[in-house]
């Protein structure tokens, strides 16, 4: 049923990149994430799956403190990135988000040129000393996002003039331009057609050579194709977490089994 062979399945002994313990998220009185413990590996694609409203995006946003921007959101527990608490008062969320990049559901390029979209982060974080270095970062990022060949002759045209799939790859280039260590992707293909989806999925597979990638997806086929680890959420709980093969072929919890077989969700 699921194509479980496309992504390399042998998850070798990877370092733990993110370690969450006893994470709770409340929106006002609503308890949206309940006591979540999870260890996310480096150089691995981890998929978050589960029915609508189960908390996938909420938990994803905890990792780079995007929930800080929602006034009614309250977070408890601990999330360590390379052993350091991302909620420590000394952590600057802007710096954190350069290290933990994010790609959203709808491509959201800035109303700027293709070049300036990618150069934006490196400029504000002072990652280049001169124009030549900045050019290099822009080219490398666009190559990394498998977009360079399509845009190299029109770098100074607006990013918003690209197709949806190209815009999403531009957003991925923008995210990788600040040399992040983790890439969070919240349903990155939901606005894309099948061809653009397949290009972005291939890209995700390449990105894990350098990053820890966490992807929220509604498509179980996509989770099976791109991830090596899968976490199944249900009603705010992390019900089951394991290798993608195991989750899809031998789930241990009846709720996981019901979801992957289409009985809930
Ligand atoms: N900004 C917010 N304010 C109040 N409640 C919210 C907010 N964002 C999410 N919630 C609630 O928290 C719960 C989890 O939502 P979340 O968006 O994280 O789920 P999800 O699994 O990502 O859903 P979907 O698959 O539909 O995107 C839901 O009950 C939702 O209504």
Give a written overview of the molecule:
With 265 residues, the chain is an alpha/beta fold. It has a domain at 16-108 and 184-260: P-loop containing nucleotide triphosphate hydrolases (Rossmann fold), CATH 3.40.50.300. It is built from ten helices and ten strands. The protein has helices at residues 56-63, 93-99, 114-124, 131-144, 148-151, 164-176, 194-207, 220-226, 244-249, 254-260, and strands at residues 16-27, 30-41, 45-49, 73-81, 84-85, 100-103, 182-186, 212-216, 229-234, 237-243. Strand 7 (182-186), helix 7 (194-207) and strand 8 form a beta-alpha-beta unit. The longest helix has 14 residues, at 131-144. The chain is globular and about 55 Å long. The model is unreliable at 4-11 (pLDDT under 50). Adenosine-5'-triphosphate binds next to strand 2 and helix 1. It comes from Paracoccus onubensis. InterPro entries: AAA+_ATPase, ABC_transporter-like_ATP-bd, ABC_transporter-like_CS, P-loop_NTPase, PstB-like. One of its GO terms (cellular component) is membrane. Keywords: ATP-binding, Nucleotide-binding, Phosphate transport, Transport. This is Phosphate ABC transporter ATP-binding protein.
């Amino acid at each position: 049923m699921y194509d479980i062979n496309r992504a390399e399945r042998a998850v070798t002994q990877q370092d733990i990149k993110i370690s969450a313990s006893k994470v709770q998220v409340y929106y006002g009185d609503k308890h949206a994430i309940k006591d979540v413990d999870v260890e996310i590996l480096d150089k691995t694609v981890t998929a978050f799956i589960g029915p609508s409203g189960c908390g996938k995006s909420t938990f994803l946003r905890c990792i780079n403190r995007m929930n800080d921007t929602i006034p009614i959101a309250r977070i408890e527990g601990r999330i360590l990135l390379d052993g350091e608490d991302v909620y420590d008062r000394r952590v600057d969320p802007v710096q954190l988000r350069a290290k933990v990049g994010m790609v959203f559901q709808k491509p959201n390029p800035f109303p700027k040129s293709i070049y300036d979209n990618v150069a934006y982060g490196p400029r504000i974080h002072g990652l280049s000393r001169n124009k030549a270095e900045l050019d290099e970062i822009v080219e490398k990022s666009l190559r990394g996002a498998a977009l360079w060949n399509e845009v190299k002759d029109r770098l100074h045209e607006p990013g918003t003039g690209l197709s949806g799939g190209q815009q999403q790859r531009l957003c991925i280039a923008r995210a990788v331009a600040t040399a992040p260590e983790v890439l969070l992707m919240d349903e990155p293909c939901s606005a894309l057609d099948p061809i653009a989806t397949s290009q972005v999925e291939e890209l995700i597979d390449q990105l894990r050579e350098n990053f820890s990638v966490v992807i929220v997806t509604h498509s179980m086929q996509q989770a099976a194709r791109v991830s090596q680890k899968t976490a199944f959420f249900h009603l705010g709980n992390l019900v089951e977490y394991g290798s993608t093969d195991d989750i899809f072929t031998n789930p241990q919890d009846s709720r996981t089994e019901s979801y992957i077989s289409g009985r809930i969700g």
